[in-house]
Amino acid sequence: MDMSNDNLQKFMIENASVRGELVELSNTWQQVLARRNYPPAVTNLLGEMMAAAALLSANLKFNGVIVMQIHGDGPIRLLVVECDAKLQMRATAKLVPDTVVEDGATLAQLVNVNGHGRFAITLDPQDKMPGQQPYQGIVPLDGDNVAEVIENYMLRSEQLDTKLWLAADANVSRGLLLQKLPNHGGIGITEEDPLESWNRVSMLGATLRPAEMLSTDIQTLLRRLFWEETVRVFEPQHPSFVCNCSREKVGNMLQMLGQKEVDEAIAELGNVSVDCDFCGQNYAFDKVDCAHLFAISAPVETLLGTGNIKH
């Protein structure tokens, strides 16, 4: 298996109102794991979210970023995956300090111990209109795994019948998405009954098992699952790991904290040190740097994912 492959393959089942995608993340996934040492159960969960975010992002109709988050009340406090329209991705997880995570921990045990876990998807356009805010949908963690949670979210918020199969380990992250296409007054009518074809294709997808996903490349999976169907494939896309943190964004975040708190940190340690939660890049600001920050008038923007402020 070539671990340098990062591919997203869109396809259409001919004569059936069904579209699909298969994704495999190897190098992109390894870039995330190289920066953090997660327990196996956390690794698997974050990897599944990475695959899901890529699959959903591939259908975005705008130039922006999808941010997928799980806010937990168990050993995991936060899982974040970001993916833009070019399939440039980054991801991170925040755990309770010194927590012990069992290898076989379920989604509920990891993030929904007291029933307060939440799943959120934010769509953030790159070129916002004046006054435009990102769209965010927040729902309870309704499902036994990430795939079920997203299926329920898509049905409620987008009114789209969606089926997802996800699997990840320390080597690779893969996923399959199937969606039932709507019919519009005769447009797109197929030779088959749409519901019958959707049920048939969904049953084929349901034969896929995690072990098979983890050991088989997506082109083989596509042939193996739908060998009796007429499948139209499109040009593959290639996800990649990209972190868009910058010194400017960290400076803006420090401005949001306020001069009083920053000055206290400078007085205590002599500088303010900030690590990016996604890529681990360190940004250090000394007394002169911080004085310059508050001497200039600059727009303030929220820096999602830059944390671990040390002072």
Structural description of this entry:
The protein is of the alpha+beta class and 311 residues long. Helices cover 32% and strands 29% of the residues. The chain has helices at residues 27-33, 40-57, 107-111, 146-158, 194-205, 210-215, 218-225, 247-257, 259-269, 287-295; strands at 6-13, 18-25, 64-71, 76-84, 88-95, 118-125, 135-140, 162-168, 173-180, 231-233, 240-241, 271-276, 282-286, 306-310. The chain has a 6-stranded mixed sheet with strand order 7-6-3-4-5-11, covered by helices on one side. The protein has a 5-stranded antiparallel sheet with strand order 8-9-2-1-10, with helices on both faces. A hairpin with a 4-residue loop joins strand 3 (64-71) and strand 4 (76-84). The longest helix has 18 residues, at 40-57. It is elongated, with a radius of gyration of 21 Å. Residues 185-190 and 297-306 have low confidence and may be disordered.
